[in-house]
Amino acid sequence: MKVRVSVQLKPGILDPQGKAVEQGLHGFGFEVDHVRIGRLIDMDVPGTDPAEVKAKALAMCEKLLVNPVMEKASIEVL
Amino acid sequence: MRVAVPVFPGSNCDHDALHACGTVMGWDTIPVWHRETRLPADTELVFVPGGFSYGDYLRCGAIAALAPIMADVRRHADNGGLVLGVCNGFQILCEAHLLPGALLRNESLRFIHADIHLRVERSDLPFTRAMKAGEVFQVPIAHAEGNFTLDPADLSDLEARGGVVFRYCSPKGQIGANHVPNGAMNGIAGIVNVRGNVLGMMPHPERVVDPRLGATGGLGVFRSLAEAVVGT
């Protein structure tokens, strides 16, 4: 099954990249606030049960994909 | 003293480490490829070098933390063996959970290379025993991700247990946000684990130990290690 893991910096963790992009958008006259930049990880995970596949993706997040000091993730089975 | 220097694809300070430990200090220093599963017998110090292991993919140090050799580095640390991680080595030790915290992108978003000053916060460690608490020394930094971060409760714990070993400071030893090059919380440049045998730091003491290269500000760390390890 196709799985999408979305990794974001936790609230309160400084995101200088997001800040720079926000300033860039302001430069073009866009009204935006709280721009945060994250990472999308798409993958094929064997299995047919969405709950089971999601559990596998969660284990991957805990082992490698996410650093809980600074990041949080959401998992979507597509 | 026997030193092992794990070498990952993308390590680029491994030769600085080998030069400092081997040529300058005269220690038996052995590079160890990341795919090895055992450190050399009788390894006393593991020096995890700087660089861009695995191209900094995913997060700095995240992939290197899973390299085969790291299991034996962990065993070495669990047995009380000394581990020093510099720059990317510090990032790797954090990702391997041998040290708390994480190194975020510098506040400025820029790669910074500069000579900075550090204040020694603790002189009772194998890494600092030849120095004095409060002593200031000059070392270079060269990193894009040195912005040390920890959640507030863990940061208080780290400070309370004296886990901070080196702090960025002015040439006279003053502490303050304007002396922190990368945005690191509390100006933290180097930390040690609870047991006191695993130290990670962003600045590069191994680059300033050879008078022929113009500066020797980093010698304190290596003299300390020489004192700490019997039989050197």
Question: How would you describe this protein?
Answer:
The complex is a heterodimer of chains A (78) and B (232). Chain A has 78 residues and is of the alpha+beta class. Chain A has a single domain (2-77), classed as Mth169, Chain: A, CATH 3.30.1280.10. Helix content of chain A is 36%, strand content 27%. Chain A has two helices and three strands. A three-stranded antiparallel beta sheet of chain A has the order 2-1-3, covered by helices on one side. Chain A starts with a strand and ends with a strand. Chain B has 232 residues and is an alpha/beta fold. Chain B has a single domain (2-228), classed as Rossmann fold. Chain B is 21% helix and 25% strand. Chain B is built from five helices and eleven strands; from the N terminus they run βαββαβαββββαβββα. The radius of gyration of chain B is 16 Å and the shape is globular. Chain B starts with a strand and ends with a helix. The model of chain B has no long low-confidence stretch (mean pLDDT 96). The A-B interface holds A 13-14, 16-17, 20, 64-65, 67, 69-70 and B 58-59, 62, 66, 94-95, 100-102, 104-109, 147, 149-151, 183.
Name some characteristics of this structure.
heterodimer, A: 78 residues, alpha+beta, Mth169, Chain: A, three-stranded antiparallel beta sheet, 36% helix, elongated, B: 232 residues, alpha/beta, Rossmann fold, nine-stranded mixed beta sheet, two-stranded antiparallel sheet, 11 strands, 21% helix, 25% strand
Brief summary of the model shown:
Chain A is an alpha+beta fold and 78 residues long.
Write the SSE topology.
The complex is a heterodimer of chains A (78) and B (232).
Chain A (H helix, E strand, L loop, with lengths): L1 E8 L6 H12 L11 E6 L5 H16 L5 E7 L1
Antiparallel strand pairs in A: 1-2, 1-3
Chain B lengths: L1 E6 L6 H11 L3 E6 L11 E4 L19 H11 L3 E5 L1 H8 L6 E3 L7 E9 L15 E8 L3 E3 L2 H9 L3 E6 L18 E5 L5 E4 L17 H10 L4
Parallel strand pairs in B: 1-2, 1-3, 3-4, 4-11
Antiparallel strand pairs in B: 5-8, 6-7, 6-9, 9-10, 10-11
